[in-house]
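Morning - adenosine-5'-triphosphate inputs below, output right after.
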Amino acid sequence: MINQEDQFKKVISHAKEYGYVFPSSEIYEGLSAVYDYGQNGVELKNNIRAYWWKAMVQMHDNIVGIDAAIFMHPTTWKASGHVDAFNDPLIDNKDSKKRYRADVLIEDYCAKIESKIDKEVAKAAKRFGDAFNKEEFVTTNPRVVGYYQKIDEILKRMGKSLGANDLADVKALIEELQIADPLSGSRNWTDVKQFNLMFGTKLGASADSAMDLYLRPETAQGIFVNFLNVQKTGRMKIPFGIAQTGKAFRNEIVARQFIFRMREFEQMEMQFFIKPGTQKEWFKHWKDTRLKWHLSLGMGDENYRFHDHEKLAHYADAATDIEFKFPFGFKELEGIHSRTDFDLKQHEEFSGKKLQYFDHEENESYVPYVLETSIGLDRMFLAVLSNALVEEELENNTTRTVLKLPAVLAPTKAAILPLVKKDGLPEIAKKIVEDLKWDFNVVYDEKDAVGRRYRRQDANGTPFCITVDHDTLDDQTVTIRYRDTMEQKRVKIDELSQLIKAEVDEKVWLEKCSV
Ligand code: ATP
């Protein structure tokens, strides 16, 4: 068994070696927490985006998309609360000179208590065998109950002091818990300060007339400011949604987890406008719907869990995260927030324009409530990639590295391989490529022995290898090899297109969302 840290390192090096993710401007030593997607990465990213877009926009007749600009009028960010409140509490260690998010240090401390609980549970399960009742154990065992109480007290106190902007108490909590710098072990901390995460820039050439702008820290505001434009021109009736994918920028204090936390990243967001008072049912609806979307990809139901928020953002009346089991543990992958009428009301106030909906049935105007689903495309990419990478022991005592990507998302759907580079086999293989490439991303590969080519495609995540051999000349059949099972079948060239479609078609996968 390899440990989590090694597995994560493997994911990062595999991503680079196979053209998925490169450090940005690497020839200049890279740029911290900024990454570029390579030739395979861009395909996987596009496929994830398309899978989301199809599920959210194309499959919902009451959801439409937009593509708003990254730059927005600076008042947008005053209205949204980002200028005043888009802060993270920062703390420095005086000895190691390392900077941390104070809330993350405290949350990590709680995660350590949680792992103690897991150990107690595992021990008890072993001791009691079949008679073990986990539910009963965690609610009655004094040690475990004590651990849960401690976590609860810590998180409540942190939530309260952050909510009241009592940063001295956040520091006091870190000191009381004797939290040490994870790198140096030192407990020599500075005071906690607030740090605004927005990147500023300037619009305009002359110094005095230039306007201070921000690079958007979320795509949501581009949707809110266009609410009426879309509602009126699209004749949309509540409930309806507006979806958008695009870049967002945050000057993250700590960004050491590859593409999990980047300074430039992409979001896929949908804001669903609803009648005030219906937010509870829509919150539940979108929680279920989004979880089904994730589960449709078959990456293991046990790898997802909801984490309901104790401490709510200033705009929310309910919030949950869909967490995924990344190589470094369960972490937020997507957020689902009931945002009330906060955003539209704020924009009404700051712009002086009405942002209301006239409900013909009720014969009244109101500011709609909003239900948001917000997922990081790069985080989803990391979830897919890290879940897919496996090192498999084979029967002949060798191992193979295989990227078991969901076929619908795989960058390349099939590799077409002539067994040898002669006897007319390359010509047939190239003809198959010409035919298939209208519908699928396929590659031609004739270099090296066929076994090595299979391994290469396994590591690339290609679900099918199609081999043209001498029998093909006589009977127009080829061998199709399945990446995950390594099973091989003889099929007619004419059947290839249908066969691949049946495995990679978005419809086949997305239909699982509706069960
Ligand atoms: P976190 O608590 O991890 O900082 P958040 O709660 O601030 O995330 P949201 O503002 O709700 O995140 O953003 C929605 C989604 O955008 C997140 O669920 C995540 O998938 C993604 N996201 C947010 N920040 C980053 C980042 N720095 N890099 C990559 N993805 C991000």
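Note: The longest strand covers residues 329-340.

O.
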